[in-house]
Every structure is written in C-alpha cells, then in structure tokens.
Design goal:
nine-stranded mixed β-sheet; UDP N-Acetylglucosamine Acyltransferase, domain 1; mainly beta; 26 strands; single chain; 2 domains
C-alpha cells in the first residue's frame, strides 16, 4: 500500500513503488521513480526523472535534484542537498532569465546502502560509492569510494565504514574489522572490499 499525505504534491507521471510513504509538503516531480518501501520526509523534494531504488529514505527537507540516481537502501539526511548545475546562474551573460535550454543538468549518483548526513551538500556530478558515509555538514566535491567515510569542507576521507555504518578497526596484517558485525575487509590501492570477495 502506498501512503501519500494530503499536502504532498506528487506528479501524475511519477511512479511510486508499493509500500512507499510520502509525508506532508513533500514534492515528487514528473517522471520521478521511487522504488518500493521508500520513505520521503516532510518537505523533501525529488526532481523530474530522478530515480530512487527500493528502501530509500529521504529525511525532512532533503533536496534531490534531477538527474540524480540513488540505488537501493540509500539514506539522505535532513536538509541535505544533491545539486545538478555545474555553473549556477539565474541569468545569461546578456541579463536574460535562463531557460532550460541554457544549461545541462548533471546528477549525483549514490551506490547501494550509502548515507548522506544532515545538511551535507553533494556537488554534481559526484559518485558516492556503495555503503559509504558522508558526514553531516560535509561538502562533497569529488567521488567517494565504496565504504569510505568523508567529512569536512571540502569533504576528505576520514576512514572506512562497514555495511552497519560503524567505523572499521584496523587489524594487524592490514585487514579491517567491523566491530558491530565481525565482518572483515581488505584494502587494496585505496579501495575496500569485504574479505570474502576481494
């Protein structure tokens, strides 16, 4: 069953997956697609033709501009922003209000299970790898590897996290351990993979 608050604005051409919930004052634009069991918080915005996978969660006032692509299980914190304009201007050099023909939208892509913290800003066209974590208030200006945790302005890698979101502990022998799940990871050339598939 789909739940849509009376005050939400959902375009007729948007596709909403079963079990999804759209709360007060949220806006889902034309041709956007939400997978099943998504939760769209109060005042959140999903731009035209944006794609969300299954089990995504957009917290209150998150802004996801087109043509963003979010894989399954992505979390976007309160008031976080995924941008779409490399050279933002309201007007052309001639002083005329810009039209859709005066710019090309570029999107943020976020991998499975990744999280973007409250009030973080992701500057398109960055790619945030699966299971990565962007700290609250970070400004992401370059790609984030899978399992990385980044923080700051501009965001820089601070360590690694596992699927449970906990910081990984560096072990003797070069492996990394998740204290919550006991899962091990191996780092090779700046990339992290679970030990069983690396």
């Amino acid at each position: 069953m789909i739940t849509i608050a009376n005050t939400a604005d959902v375009a007729d051409t948007a596709v909403i997956g079963d079990g999804s919930r759209i709360w007060h004052l949220a806006q889902i634009r034309e041709d956007a697609t939400l997978g099943s069991n998504c939760n769209i918080g109060r005042g959140a915005y999903v731009g035209p033709a944006v794609r969300l996978g299954n089990n995504c969660k957009l917290q209150n006032y998150a802004l996801v501009y087109e043509p963003a692509r979010l894989a399954d299980g992505v979390f976007i914190g309160p008031a976080a922003v995924l941008t779409n304009d490399l050279h933002p201007r309201a007007i052309t050099p001639d002083g005329i209000l810009k039209s859709p023909n005066d710019w090309v939208a570029v999107g943020v892509t976020i991998g499975k299970g990744a999280s973007v913290g409250a009030r973080a800003v992701c500057i398109a066209p960055v790619l945030i790898g699966e299971w990565a974590t962007v700290a609250a208030g970070a400004v992401v200006t370059r790609n984030v590897p899978a399992y990385a945790v980044v923080a700051g302005v501009p965001a820089r890698q601070m360590g690694w996290v596992g699927e449970a979101g906990h910081p990984l502990k560096h072990e003797d022998g070069g492996s990394w351990l998740c204290p919550a799940t006991g899962r091990r990871y191996l780092e090779t050339k700046g990339q992290l993979l679970p030990a069983e598939i690396s």
